[in-house]
């Protein structure tokens, strides 16, 4: 609960997205930052390839959940939805879906999902990698809605400019996405 200094991690993410010229690949457990979603949609509308992989627990737009849906959630998920609604910033997953950004989760292989997806990376133009411990969520980037005096979970993001490293992360993304021979839907994500 103590105030701590720190970089603006959302600005780091947004800068990488805005600097993209061809492609943005995102694999994160949770993406609930509306400004990041809006930047990805804008890149998609500029003609860049944008693709997002999420954990199935976080892939349903929270704004689409009915009270009955919310009641069926685990307590942690109910609390998360209430926090996101209280922030009144917008539903990032809904923004992505409305904007036409392709999004899959770990049920893409036909399974119920792993419930274990914990990736946190973004590859830009096959030369920049942004990765670290932070989900692209308000609590990881800006602070805990239940404790506004904090700066959120202690997380980090690193930006690497390396085609070699980007190739490794892009290969992991392709394994999750399922870009097999002939464009077959062959995700091994779940």
Please explain how this structure is put together.
The chain is an alpha/beta fold and 190 residues long. 35% of the residues lie in helices and 16% in strands. The protein has 7 helices and 6 strands. It has helices at 9-18, 34-45, 67-72, 75-87, 92-98, 138-141, 163-177; strands at residues 23-28, 49-54, 103-105, 120-124, 128-132, 157-161. It has a 6-stranded mixed beta sheet with strand order 3-2-1-4-5-6, sandwiched between helices. Helix 1 (9-18) packs parallel to helix 2 and helix 2 (34-45) runs parallel beside helix 5. The protein is globular and about 45 Å long. The mean pLDDT is 80.
Element layout with pairings:
Elements lengths: L8 H10 L4 E6 L5 H12 L3 E6 L12 H6 L2 H13 L4 H7 L4 E3 L14 E5 L3 E5 L5 H4 L15 E5 L1 H15 L13
Parallel strand pairs: 1-2, 2-3
Antiparallel strand pairs: 1-4, 4-5, 5-6
In short:
It contains seven helices and six strands. The protein has 190 residues and is of the alpha/beta class.
Question: How many H/I helices?
Answer: 7
Shape by Cα distribution: globular
Strand order of the largest sheet: 3-2-1-4-5-6
Helix content: 25-40%
Report the sheet with the most strands, covering strand number, pairing sense and barrel closure.
6 strands, mixed
Rounded to the nearest angstrom, the distance between the terminal CA atoms is: 36 Å
Name the helix and strand elements from N-terminus to C-terminus, one letter apiece.
HEHEHHHEEEHEH
Residue fraction in strands? 15-25%
Rg: 16 Å
Question: What is the average of the pLDDT values?
Answer: 80
Structural class: alpha/beta
How many strand segments? 6
In the predicted model, the low-confidence regions spanning at least 5 consecutive residues are none
């Amino acid at each position: 609960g103590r105030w701590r200094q720190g970089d603006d991690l959302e600005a780091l993410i947004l800068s990488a997205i805005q600097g993209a010229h061809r492609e943005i690949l995102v694999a994160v457990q949770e993406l609930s930052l509306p400004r990041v979603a809006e930047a990805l949609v804008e890149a998609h509308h500029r003609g860049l390839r944008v693709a997002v992989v999420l954990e199935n627990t976080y892939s349903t737009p929270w704004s689409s959940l009915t009270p009955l849906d919310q009641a069926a959630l685990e307590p942690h998920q109910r609390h998360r939805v209430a926090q996101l609604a209280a922030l009144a910033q917008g539903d990032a997953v809904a923004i992505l879906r409305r904007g036409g950004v392709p999004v899959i989760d770990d049920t893409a292989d036909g399974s119920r999902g792993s419930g274990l997806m914990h990736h946190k990376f973004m590859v830009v133009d096959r030369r920049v990698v942004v990765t670290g411990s932070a989900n692209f969520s308000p609590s990881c980037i800006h602070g805990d809605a239940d404790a506004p005096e904090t700066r959120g979970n202690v997380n980090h993001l690193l930006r690497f400019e390396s085609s070699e490293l980007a190739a490794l992360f892009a290969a992991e993304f392709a394994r999750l996405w399922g870009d097999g021979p002939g464009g077959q839907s062959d995700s091994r994500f779940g």
